[in-house]
Amino acid sequence: MTTADDHARTRIRVDLAATMLVVAGAGTGKTTALVQRIVELVTTGTATLREIAAITFTEAAAAELRDRVRRAIDAEAKMRPDDARLAAARHDVDEAAICTLHAFARRIITEHSVATGVPPGFEVLGDTAERSDFDARWGTFADALLADPDAEPALVRGFALGLSPAALVEVARSMYAQQDRLDADALRALATAQPGRHGWPVVTTRSVVDAIDTALAYEPSCTDPDDKLAVHLRDVLVPARALLASVPVHDAADVADEAVLQALDNTPKLGCGKGQAGNWAIPVTDVRAACAAAETARSEMLDAVRRAVAADLGARLAAFVVAVAEQRRIEGKLGFGDLLVCARDLLRRDPEAARSLRRRYTRLLVDEFQDT
Length: 372
Prior knowledge:
It is built from 16 helices and 5 strands. The chain is mainly alpha-helical.
């Protein structure tokens, strides 16, 4: 029986000089085609099984792929018992690089442990052990962070705006999960953005109170006390003004006044797009614009502080994450993400290691590419 894609399937198997990306739905035989290509590479002498790296996503998928390759090679060997290539492949199948991406990275690190700086016989931590190790290191770092006077301005402002220690550790964990993105350029950019280099945003309620007063001055122009915009002025802006006016006003950038920040953060949204034009003696758009200006003054001030806090603490957390990765590398305790980053960094900075890998593996096949 022939199918519309028979030509494509045949090409995948026999066009061994081509680099291919095979796109097909689930259950269409992509893995079968990959196994056939491996067998063809071996039987034609294009590559030995030791020169082939076949990468897949999960350990279960890797075990299944290895078994399928083994069975396919055994079947070919039974038909050609005198074929030395197939005999060698049958011997090599257990040692072949048919594995997950993380296992392949581990092979690279093991073969170049001196160049990576990872001790021989290093340990790969499981998820639970890795999290426990991270938590222990975080506890030491968090104690130092809370005691660091240089970090106090960011922490005071952050906690006043609802930041919690639990949120900090979750950010650190997320950074660690994506540590490959924290290269030297990224770390420099984070450090440059720290507010300590150019001053903290000024925090004051004065500009917001002034904007609220401008909006409230329009209330007598409303002819209907039940107009929704007029109700907003009375029920939202009036109590908001009272709250903001009750806290001290600071104009110095180095003053981290928790009461001011909390008052601004606890103030409800001041903008309002309601109101009937016929209920106002002035353009209702002027009243809405005044409310919007009050909200803009409030939100822009808070956003500026939040960005500054994120920049300051983000740089500190990034530095912590990089330090943890380096400590684990030296101690020989690598998580799954560490395996990938160590292997990548080795091949980026060590041309001889990259050349060695290209000589060692002349063919690379990746199953479930979209996941791997």
